[in-house]
Design a protein that fits this description.
It comes from Aquincola tertiaricarbonis. Pfam families: DUF938. The chain has one domain: 3-Layer(aba) Sandwich (Rossmann fold), CATH 3.40.50. Helices cover about 35% and strands about 25% of the residues. It has six helices and nine strands. β1, α2 and β2 form a beta-alpha-beta unit. α4 crosses α6. The protein is globular. The protein binds S-adenosylmethionine (SAM). S-adenosylmethionine binds next to loops.
């Protein structure tokens, strides 16, 4: 009997193209990227061949996500073996030091606030001096009317887990600032999402 490990996310299929456009704009020609919460692995499988100067290190705490990512990325020479990593783990055991980019999509609203705290704390510790953290997902932005879709999504998330929810950008910025990171660039993405670029 053959077993397939491929998980599939329709949202990932939709957003991977616009996300790659942003990566091409903000990343230098080469470097080492650590992906936090890689999920199915479809982002890694889409980005790595399009960014041949980059080494891509996917990570996730769920073994089935690591298996799926390995399956999606089979044969891609610039994708490293997926790493078991919980973003809240102090010191990010096993993660490479001095990475040039950290990419994290759709985590901080679908996890307790500790995930955002861990992401900012360890990104500050693991990014090279000019390294960039990219986060992707929905946010509530002060002074901007919330999109109805994001309000509904927030309510749905909180029903699934009261510790989850669409985050206020100001709260994320405060957490980043606590660790010496600041918002460098903002890209408005389809479906009321933002890609945010953070650095020192
Ligand atoms: C909604 S999925 C997003 C997956 C992928 N980034 C995407 O955009 O399609 C959320 C991912 O966060 C991961 N995750 C949940 N808690 C986490 C944690 N504490 N540390 C790292 N990843 C976590 C889950 O295993 C899952 O793969």
């Amino acid at each position: 009997m053959t077993t397939t490990h491929l998980l599939s996310s329709p949202a990932c299929e939709r957003n991977r193209g616009p996300l790659l456009d942003v990566l091409r704009q903000v990343l230098p020609a080469q470097g080492l990227a650590l992906e936090i919460a890689c999920g199915t692995g479809q982002h890694a499988a889409h980005f790595a061949p399009a960014l041949p100067g980059w080494q891509w290190q996917p990570s996730d705490p769920q073994p089935e996500c690591l298996r799926s990512t390995a399956a999606w990325c089979a044969g891609l020479a610039n994708v490293r073996t997926p790493l078991l990593l919980d973003v809240t783990a102090p010191g990010w055991p096993g993660a490479p030091q001095a990475v040039d980019a950290i990419f994290c999509a759709n985590l901080i609203h679908i996890a307790p606030w500790a995930a955002c705290q861990g992401l900012m704390r360890e990104a500050a510790a693991h990014l090279a001096p000019d390294g960039q953290l990219l986060t992707y997902g929905p946010y509530f932005v002060e002074g901007e009317p919330p999109a109805p879709g994001n309000l509904a999504f927030d309510a749905d998330l909180k029903q699934r887990d009261p510790a989850w929810g669409v985050r206020r950008l100001a709260d994320v910025q405060a957490e980043a600032a606590h660790h010496g990171l600041r918002l460098l660039r903002r890209f408005d993405m389809p479906a009321n999402n933002l890609t945010l670029v953070w650095g020192r």
